[in-house]
Amino acid sequence: MYTLQELASLVGGTVVGNPELEIAGVSEIQHGQPGTLTFLSNPKYKKYLADTKATAVLVADGDLLGTKAGIVVKNPQLAMTKILARFQSPLRTPKGIHPTAVVDETATIGSEVSIGAYSVVEAGARIGNNTVLGSHVTLGQESVIGEWAMIHSHAVIYHHCFIGDRAVIHSGTVIGSDGFGFVTEGDTHHKIPQNGAVIIGDDVEIGANCAIDRGTIGNTAIGDGTKFDNLVHIAHNVKIGRGCLLTAAVAIAGSTEIGDFCIFAGQAGVAPHLKIGDRAVFAAKTGVTKSLPGGKIYAGMPAREIREQNRRDAVFSQVVRLEKRLEKLEHKLFS
């Protein structure tokens, strides 16, 4: 339980209304509950503001509150993120190794580590201090996980993979599987050995059911602070920079290099052996077929700057309308 003033101090905001109002949790603005705090950042939800039953509202513009109590802050969504963390119920993660876990005697386990039921830690693996492995996690030979990491149940980390501090890896994700590499002779596909590693930086979060392939000769690398949604596939020898955001069903083909702070919306894809500059943004379902500079927004297949793609889409729509008008004129002339 926090007062409105305590929460405002947490996020650097200004209280409107009674600062001593007690807030017991958070709720969605369209399903607001008494005793909770909600927020408004997307204009689409403004229609719910007048009728929400939440006790207080986080807003960027105090004039929107009317007679309601709230907190005025520059970025309501960021502020709500900090407040949600205060109300988050911590997971119970007892320290130590569960009796059913199998930990090789040559593995190195830091202090205050938690290893869950039926997990396997193979020979030569190392786990840093305060890291948590959920149940049924596999950590392969000679792989390393840093400090304060959270590896959720049923994640699989192959041999010779390196994961930084404070990493979060969700269930079903596989790190270090073989890249898709074959040489075809006649009707036979000969597998190319995948002898590289996967190197993941600090503060990286990887969603559920992702696949990150190991390198063929060099390494697949993910930069510090990069975040993956669920169902992302990273092929062998891909290099991804710092602070990138990859949303659901994005696929990056082999040996592509992506700069820092790039954003890929859902189902975007990148062909192999390309280079993407820093801070490039790709709209949903964009198909990247050539190297592209950073600092621009792209859309379409093949990817073009979004203004150009929008112009092309508009022309196509006009052509369709003209075609329908022409059909009507032909019908009148020849009927």
Blueprint (SSEs and pairs):
Layout: E1 2-3, H1 4-11, E2 14-16, E3 22-23, E4 25-26, E5 36-39, E6 56-59, E7 69-72, H2 76-87, E8 96-97, E9 102-103, E10 108-109, E11 114-115, E12 120-121, E13 126-127, E14 132-133, E15 138-139, E16 144-145, E17 150-151, E18 156-157, E19 161-163, E20 168-169, E21 174-177, E22 182-185, E23 188-191, E24 198-200, E25 205-206, E26 211-213, E27 220-222, E28 227-228, E29 233-234, E30 239-240, E31 245-246, E32 251-252, E33 257-258, E34 263-264, E35 269-270, E36 275-276, E37 281-282, E38 287-288, E39 297-299, E40 304-305, H3 306-334
Parallel strand pairs: 4-5, 5-6, 6-7, 8-11, 9-12, 10-13, 11-14, 12-15, 13-16, 14-17, 15-18, 16-19, 17-20, 18-21, 19-24, 20-25, 21-26, 24-27, 26-29, 27-30, 28-31, 29-32, 30-33, 31-34, 32-35, 33-36, 34-37, 35-38, 37-39
Antiparallel strand pairs: 1-3, 2-7, 22-23, 39-40
Number of strands: 40
End-to-end distance: 77 Å
Low-confidence stretches: none
Main β-sheet description = 10 strands, parallel
Task: List the total number of helices.
Answer: 3
Query: Based on CA inertia axes, which overall geometry fits?
Result: flat
CATH class designation of the largest domain:
Mainly Beta
Q: In total, how many domains does the architecture comprise?
A: 2
Radius of gyration: 26 Å
Using the coordinates shown, work out and report the CATH topology of the largest domain: UDP N-Acetylglucosamine Acyltransferase, domain 1
Q: Helix/strand/pairing class, anyone? A: alpha/beta
Question: At the fourth CATH level, what is the homologous superfamily of the largest domain?
Answer: Hexapeptide repeat proteins
Helix content range of the residues, please?
10-25%
Can you list the strand order of the major beta sheet? Answer: 9-12-15-18-21-26-29-32-35-38
What is the architecture of the largest domain at the second tier of CATH?
Answer: 3 Solenoid
